[in-house]
Specification:
The chain is an all-alpha fold and 80 residues long. Helix content is 55%, strand content 0%. The protein is built from four helices and no strands.
Amino acid sequence: MSSKEKYSEIFKNSLNVTKEKINENLKYNEIDEWDSIGHMTLIAALEEEYKITFETDDIIDFSSYKKGIEILKKYKVNIS
């Protein structure tokens, strides 16, 4: 499984959606499942998987699938 597939899988499992709902253009609150509760579930799953702790500003800035990849680079997690 590639790092991007793993990242997508974390989204799918955290938000409890089908694979078809996850794409590179997905944005926060664009689907019902990615609400504030889903967001924190996603953040917790990413922190656990990548053994990191997000700064508060990064949790707030994590507004899309693509933005998440950018933020993870800051923590030396490369999604490709």
